[in-house]
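Figure S7 source data.
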Amino acid sequence: MWRRSREVPAGDLAALLHELATPGCLLCGAAERALSSFYFWYLNEQYHEPPVVTRVQSAHGFCRRHTLHLLVRAGAGTVTSIYRLAVPAWAELARRLETGSGRRDGEGPALAARARPSAACPACEQEGRTLERTLRGLHRAVADPETAARVVRSRAICLTHLLAAAPSLSWTGLRTLTEAALHGLGEGGVEGLWGTDGDAAVRVRAGGARSEPASGPGPEARSTSLADLHRLLGGAACPLCSAGLTSVDRYLRWLEREVFEPAHRWSEATVLCPVHAHDLASRAAPASIAALAAAARSEWTARLRELHAGLERRPPESPFVRLLDLPEQLRRTGDGGRSGWRRWRPALAAVLEPPERRLGRLRDRALNRPPCPACRHAAAAVERWSQLLAAALDDPGTARRYARSHGVCLRHLPAVLGRCRGSSAAGLLLRSMRVRLELLAWELEEAQRKAGWDLRHEPAGGERTAWRRAASLASGAVLEPGLPVGLSS
Ligand SMILES: [Zn+2]
Ligand SMILES: [Zn+2]
Ligand SMILES: [Zn+2]
Ligand SMILES: [Zn+2]
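Tokens for the predicted zinc ion complex:
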């Protein structure tokens, strides 16, 4: 259905060697090219083809990140057409769920399961396939020592992609790519450490690195949680998207100052995802970035060096042959003040450990770290605020505010629905969603109708911004809440 993007086919050594001529992470480059190709074909040829329309409907559009790509690359007319084809199907889904709701309390989880998209974001899927194929090609290529040396020289993998790929790599693959990542760490800048982020500049233009969203829960001393929730509902975007963005914003602001304090207070930040690393880099003082990068570089250099040293020689497959290493292992482990069997036992256990188990142990010790703290804080904020929203919707004052608010986006609807205890809260969520989607469907149709040649005398009305609101209702706060949006037109 979707055209294949240009990528390094697994086993195509010539293509891989060509890509290696340019230094930098091969996977970051392949992902960027895959997305360019994906959007080129999607926007120029495919978005109106029935199977593609069905696929986008099932995925509930694109994820936040890829919706931003869509808005940046496509004109308002094309985005209007894309949502014009998808929104009626979502309105129909909301109507079906609404009709089936309100019968009994505790139906939230069942409704949430039906409200989830039945397919992944198409762009994510394409990106994932490309990364998998490129990694497979890279993995095969490093079996050849000469190509492996070129992979290392060209710093063919960034830290982020090494961490993601490590569990699937063989002994040789992990050793070579660890060395390549070590080379990359030596390079200055955020890319060498945390990988490239093709969306960074676009997010800055869209306000992603702006000050705290006005709609975020405020820190006022007299504030109650319900008042904070009402403030979130007063914003111009999905309250859960706003809560997540606010949480990331606060963490990055805190981190920017905290990096001058002792490292144990913020050491988890040496694993930032590319998105949050670039968000921080676009707004923090150069001295803060330099302090964080120096700490991350020093920590990861030590970890990768230790891993690389541990992987220097793959032990023989046969346990009997491995026993020949026992004298060397005894010399390395020393006696540690033990004697007899107690002295032999650790060395014997080390020698008898199967190579695959040793690979897993070395890999976990060096690379197992909790994921990006900013992503974790955002996920926790969404989780907490969706619990509160689900509970508060039974309060008449909150229900009235919710009915007047932007409401949760389609992507966050299942999170709140699943936590609704009472049937009236679930009914309110579904009714609001259905009405918003039906109004949007009308506006998108109207925008397309007015774009016709014979209606050029008609002044444009509110429907001219329906495409932006459709993106915001489907995929959440793609663009910073409350900001005038105007990337494509
Ligand atoms: Zn990368
Ligand atoms: Zn996506
Ligand atoms: Zn949302
Ligand atoms: Zn992150």
